[in-house]
Amino acid sequence: METDIGALLSKEMFFSGTQVNYFIVCKTKLWLFSHFVTMEHSSDLVSYGKLVHETTYGEKKKEIVIDDRIAIDFIQKGDTVVLHEVKKGKRLEKAHRYQLLYYLYYLNELKGVENVEGEIDYPLLRKKEHIVLTENLKEEMRNILKGIKEVIAMPEPPEPAYMRICRKCAYFEFCWV
Ligand code: SF4
Predict the structure, then answer these.
(1) Residues within a 6 A CB radius of ligand 1
(2) CATH value at residue 166
(3) Which pLDDT band, with edges at 50, 70 and 90, does 32 fall under?
(4) What value does the mean pLDDT take over residues 38-66?
(5) Which of 29, 42, 50, 168 has the CA that lies 20 to 30 A from 57?
(6) How far apart are CA 97 and CA 111, in angstroms?
(7) Which run of H or of E encompasses 50?
(8) Residue 127's CB: how many other CB atoms inside 10 A?
(9) Could you give the CA distance from residue 25 to residue 163 in angstroms, rounded to a whole number?
């Protein structure tokens, strides 16, 4: 199933995985990132075409980076396409989960890839999390994308709220100095 490109462009489909991640982690960060970083949306369709090509013809890819915005650590070929993300720790577990979920959603909704699943690998913790794109999660993802759109459309960044991760955040000075 190929999705109609015109309809696609009217949807909130061109956010990056990073933006999905930031929506979960910190909406101030999402706003700042989205306003200060220029993104090239136009080449995404080509890139996803390439991605699907590689999942069709490649056995296993070490890393695929798409437009410097979406990085999928590797993809296995089988009856099911499995997108892998490798993470060091679980501190931002929820954000990792939704970021990968977005990739699954993107492939499923944009490219009509039916059998696509995700796995987050935590090699240091010797743990894995398997992610399946259910109808409920698709609905949740639609709401998240709508939320991202609303945050970005705000005239100013949302008020920051201090968290432990702030000290390592690139926007620390903007928020707290
Ligand atoms: S410093 Fe903290 S509040 Fe500010 S953008 Fe970063 S994570 Fe968000």
Answers:
(1) 26, 28-29, 32, 160, 163, 165-166, 169, 171-172, 175
(2) 3.90.320
(3) very high
(4) 46
(5) 42
(6) 21
(7) helix 44-57
(8) 11
(9) 10
Domain that holds residue 34: 5-176
End-to-end CA separation in angstroms for the chain: 51
Please state whether the predicted TM-score (pTM) of the whole model is above 0.85. Answer: no
Residue 27 CA: which ligand 1 atom is closest?
A: 8
Q: Which residues pair with 70 in a beta bridge?
A: 66
Measured N-to-C along each axis, helices 93-111 and 44-57 cross at an angle, to the nearest 10 degrees, of 90
Are 86 and 121 in contact by the 8 Å Cβ rule? The answer is yes
Lowest mean pLDDT among 75-79, 99-103, 173-177: 75-79
| CA 161 / ligand 1 centre spacing (Å) | 7
CA dist 85 and 92 (Å) reads 13
Query: To test ligand 1's pocket by mutation, which of 18, 151, 165, 173 has the most ligand atoms within 8 angstroms of CB?
Result: 165
Nearest atom of ligand 1 to the alpha carbon of 172 = 1
Helix axes 135-153 and 27-36, enclosed angle (nearest 10): 60
Ligand 1 atom with the smallest distance to the CA of 167 is: 1
Number of domains in the chain: 1
